[in-house]
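Onboarding guide, step 5: your first structure request.
Type a short instruction followed by the sequence, for example:

Predict the 3D structure of this protein.
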Amino acid sequence: MDHEATQELSVTPDAVAGGTTQVSDEVVEKIAVAAAKSVPGVAELGGDVARFFNAVLDKVGLDRVGDARRGCSAHVTNGAAVVNLVLVISAGHPVPQVTDAVRAAVTAAVESYGLRADEINIRVDDVAMTDPALPTP
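The system replies with structure tokens like these:
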């Protein structure tokens, strides 16, 4: 009888191809926005113009367009990220506490993706006098 033998090939670290990994600026922007939005006291991200255009997009049913990176720019060089955020803070929340919490959250999020957070620059553009999560009458 003729038996076919099955040979298993083991994969060793030596068999893994080399190369480089790059994380785009846009990916870091999305990570930073998600982290910033998770901080209590952050009402919105983006300056006046970005929020105006977002309101227009909301009215025509395109409310998710641009939200993932709105209010953020990032630049990644050699595994290090510089992140710039524009925030709207909820009324009653102390600016230093909110910005410190945002900086810590964004740093942790960026570093969890294997990058180094060199700078997290924050500009507070406005204060929200009402809670955007509450429905308006």
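Each response can be followed by summary notes, for example: The CA atoms of residues 129 and 135 lie 14 Å apart.
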